Amino acid sequence: MDFRSNKDYYHCREEYPDGLTNLLLPREEFHPFPKCGEQGWEEIDEVTRKAIIAHAENCMTQPVAYIPATAYMKYHREGDRSNDGLVGTRRRNMLMLALAECIEQKGRFMDALIDHIWVLCEETTWVLPAHQKALETFNPVHIDLFAAETALNISEVYVLLKERLEPLILRRVEEEIRRRAIEEYIKSQAAQNAGTPENKPDEGNE
Fold it and tell me: Of 120, 118, 140, whose CA–CA distance to 129 is shortest?
């Protein structure tokens, strides 16, 4: 979708000329869900608690899912998207480990969680193979919905467990979200406003 032809987009720009600044809560007032250690986690029902803990315990016994370069290239070689699940598994496991830690609050899931966060930060790209135009023009920080979702997932873990994660991990998360999502989005919007769109956020989302 090209936002330059989107009436709602232009209506928003006219109504809020300063962008989203006036619509967003100050950081100190933003509290979308209970952080680890706050009240609320005890309200999760027993069945759900056991399922989350069991999933997280299984993650602790296995290495972080490995995604070889040939798996990423498979779509461009054969049109095969069967390896998309490997990418999703990493993110799902990270979230389940974070939830398990928030439920138990014993620290036993933290090392496995840190490993999953680190691996996501080390990924060459957060974009699904099918959403890259071609490997010849590979752009590691192109934004598709999956890249944006990954930034959201890691941000949620950051908010939930900020007080329990080491400063090194927090800084790395901040850096990667800024580089892969925020700065790239600002860059793409500037290009689109200039009439030379470099990155359409919805492009390639089959």
Answer: 140
**Helical segments of the chain, H only:** 7-15, 46-60, 69-78, 84-104, 110-122, 145-161, 167-177, 183-193
Q: Report H helices in 105-204.
A: 110-122, 145-161, 167-177, 183-193
161: amino acid identity, one letter: L
CA distance 177 to 180: 5
pTM over 0.85: no
What are the pLDDT digits (tens) for 136-176? 667 777 888 999 999 999 999 999 999 999 999 999 999 99
Taking CA atoms, 173 is separated from 137, 154, 169, 179, 191, in Å, by 26, 7, 6, 10, 26
